[in-house]
Amino acid sequence: MLKVNKKTLEVENAFNYKAPFYVMLALNVFAFSYIANKEVQVIRKTRIIHKTDTMIVERKDIALNDSAICAELVRLGCVLPNVAVAQFRIETGNYTSAICRENKNLAGIRNSSSPLSIGKNRGHNAYKTYRDCLKDYVRVQNKYLKNIDGRYAEAKGYVRLIKSMRK
Q1: Does 144 fall in a domain?
Q2: Could you tell me the CATH number of the domain that includes residue 99?
Q3: pTM of this prediction exceeds 0.85
Q4: Same domain, 46 and 70
Q5: Mean pLDDT computed over 150-160
Q6: CA distance 93 to 99
Q7: In b/e form, how buried is each residue of 75-91, taking b as 16+ CB within 10 angstroms?
Q8: Where are the beta strands (DSSP E) in the chain?
Q9: Burial of 48 (0-12, 13-18, 19+ CB in 10 A)
Q10: Total structural domains in the chain?
Q11: Helices 130-146, 66-76: crossing angle, 10 deg rounding
Q12: DSSP state, 75?
């Protein structure tokens, strides 16, 4: 509490704010470091790979949404990734089917003898991650695109034309 000298109108016994200031500063530093540590732990748990100015973190799997799946397909060199995403939504009932969730199988792949597949469940390939399923999808797509010229299209360079339309 402040006391004012009535004769001189000067403040006497002013409250010293130094101690509470340093206590609050210490609490804020502690809280910030605790929160920052939790964010780092979350990043370590999800293991997401992306390059930032300060660190590189490993990306283990992708989110189940159209934009994340499409971005991964583009990164993997998929032909017509938007069409593939539409197929995945149909195959999985908008990413809700048991095959999608249990097997991490977005494409309804059944007969792939891929090393990425960890087995079968409900007649479909099972994968460790959704990313592995997308890699397998692109592998199968490339296998079939190699054989499409002359069999399914009369125009020469059909595969090259399809690949040029990736954007």
Answers
A1: yes
A2: 1.10.530.10
A3: no
A4: no
A5: 57
A6: 10
A7: ebebbebeebbeebeeb
A8: 3-4, 11-12, 49-51, 56-58, 117-121, 124-127
A9: middle
A10: 2
A11: 50
A12: H
